[in-house]
Amino acid sequence: MGKQKVQFRCPIDKVVGLFNKKWTIQIIRDMFFGKKQFSEFKEDKPNLSNKVLSQRLKELEESNIIEKKIIETHPVKTEYYLTDYGRSLNRVIYEIAMFSLNSGFEEYSDKDKREEIRTLFKDTLNISD
Known about the structure:
By secondary structure, the chain is mainly alpha-helical. Helix content is 51%, strand content 9%. It contains 7 helices and 2 strands. It has a two-stranded antiparallel ribbon with strand order 1-2. Strand 1 and strand 2 (77-82) form a beta hairpin. Helix 6 (90-101) runs antiparallel to helix 7. The protein starts with 10 loop residues before the first helix and ends in a 5-residue tail after the last helix.
């Protein structure tokens, strides 16, 4: 008898389904860099609509990547934080950034600038060699 083929859904498919949505990776990156309020996520993304940002934050919360905290102030504030599970994406975000830096894009042709960006990501994402 031949080998029995094991059927499974590739784990990459599930993650790509979530991260394939526009703005998701940038929102996660921003959270590593200290952004936590709705308005902060939009600061440098003029094309990010309130509707899409709300959807992405909800999807990330449902996926246990972020948690929402209501701050009882006047007016009430909502803040978003990476969960432990979400923080485990630090190496993924770092590797995406490094892939881009090493891609040969003209924007990163200056070796010193590349090193500065690499160090910034390494330190912010708590990446050890």
